[in-house]
Predict the structure.
Amino acid sequence: MGRYLFITLFSLLLLAGCSSTKLAYRYADWGIVWWVDDYIPMTSEQESRLERDIQNLRQWHCSTELPQYSQWLTRLKSDVRSGDLDESTVAWHQEKLFAFFPPLMDRAKPAAARLLASLTDEQVRQLAENMKESQQELEDELLADNPEQTRAARAERTTERVERWLGPLNDSQLATVIRWSEARGKQTEIWLEGRRNWQEALLEALEERDSDRFSDRIGYLIDNNEEVRGERYQQMMADSRTAIAELMTDLLQQADQRHLDHLLGRASELRGDFDTLACVGEDTENTSS
């Protein structure tokens, strides 16, 4: 999900709305299971293979990647304490965060292709039906009857996600969030359109899951996520990165000490999660022993 939190920790949460523990592995698992496990029942053989793949991925992730996340959070906390929260600092943290994702996605591709190649015709049919239903539910939920209602709902969601990391916003911050949300135009519609485009491309690829080229096609869908979602989506994401960094800079400059203390507390909590998950957590005990 900003990706998404933070200075940029906010960015991920604004886009994905993850809890601190989910943040560690949401993206590790995304490349393998979100489009299958959320939508259709799998066979025992598929479940068993998937469990082994996820264990291997998490073992690599916790030993190789999580220590880097912890180091980044240490730098984030230092910048918050020092008051070094200008636009260039926010941009640095944002780029640092987004740089964490490509290695994770690359590592997940073989398992994703393996799982998808094992789907039966009936499973693919169920997947298509359930993704269509989910898309319609999201459109009904996120798109209000008029643009003003959609913008108001976006502002409410953004406020809720920011407050997880800053605590209750003051009047100046709330006004900033409202202005920011109003300036996002048709962002929600474009996100939903991109989601639909990506799912259609996945279903098209699944028609050739017996082909030697199938792994390459799945790899392309993962590596070129934004391109597959369409030109409007690509432009929206490029604009959003800048806009989110600007929003975070404004909110932090308008922050009271209580907001900074709240942010430091959440960053410490998240860093503790990363340190705990670094090959000694519940999910990795068996594979690291």
User: Anything to note?
Assistant: Residues 1-32, 280-289 have pLDDT under 50 and may be disordered.
